[in-house]
């Protein structure tokens, strides 16, 4: 009887945890998401502001939580950064410029110009309030999604690390956002 109770309790708890959400600046983030059969847990999330205006919510999903940025960048092969646009002031050009700015540090130190150009070339449609981008790392591959539609697959560990370093690297786009994504705040 005790074993049956534990099984039912565990099953019930699992269903409850799958429905949990976190709200960040009016964006509802799922506690768990499944990407290609892999269950990923929300590690942390925060709001990116520019000139005092909130621009997007950025969240990090991992299979196992981590607050160590080097571990996330260099040792964890499966990770997701999700960017939810929360401002109608951001444009396609501003979004592309922000990514280019974030990757500039790595452009000088490695040969990822081709991958950066490939990535920027797929941002063709206007970026609008409510858009959701997902940057999905799987081993050496990085898949870019916009509103659940795959835009491009880029193979290259250097590009993948550079892209995720925008938020989690030694020179992140926003130190507070980095800490929030790593669950430190």
Automatic annotation (TrEMBL):
GO molecular function, one term: intramolecular lyase activity
Keywords: Signal
Claim: Transcription regulation is one of the keywords in the record: no
Originating organism: Flammeovirga pacifica
Record protein name field: Chalcone isomerase domain-containing protein
Pfam families referenced in this protein's UniProt entry, alphabetically: Chalcone_3 (PF16036)
Cleaved signal peptide residues: 1-19
Keyword Signal appears in the UniProt entry: yes
InterPro entries: Chalcone_isomerase (IPR016087), Chalcone_isomerase_3-sand (IPR016088), Chalcone_isomerase_sf (IPR036298)
Domain Chalcone isomerase span(s) in chain numbering: 22-183
């Amino acid at each position: 009887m005790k074993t049956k109770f534990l099984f039912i309790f565990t099953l019930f708890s699992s269903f409850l945890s799958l429905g949990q959400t976190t709200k960040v600046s009016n964006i509802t983030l799922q506690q768990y998401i499944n990407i290609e059969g892999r269950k990923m847990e929300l590690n942390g999330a925060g709001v990116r502001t520019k000139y005092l205006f909130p621009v997007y919510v950025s969240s990090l999903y991992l299979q196992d939580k981590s607050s160590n940025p080097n571990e996330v960048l260099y040792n964890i092969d499966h990770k997701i950064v999700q960017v939810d646009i929360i401002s109608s002031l951001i444009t396609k050009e501003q979004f592309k410029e922000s990514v280019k700015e974030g990757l500039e540090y790595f452009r000088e130190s490695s040969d990822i110009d081709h991958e950066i150009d490939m990535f920027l070339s797929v941002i063709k449609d206007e970026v609008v309030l409510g858009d959701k981008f997902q940057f999905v790392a799987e081993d050496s591959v990085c898949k870019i999604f916009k509103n659940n539609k795959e835009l491009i697959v880029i193979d290259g560990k250097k590009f993948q690390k550079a892209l995720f370093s925008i938020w989690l690297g030694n020179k992140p786009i926003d130190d507070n956002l980095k800490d929030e994504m790593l669950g430190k705040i």
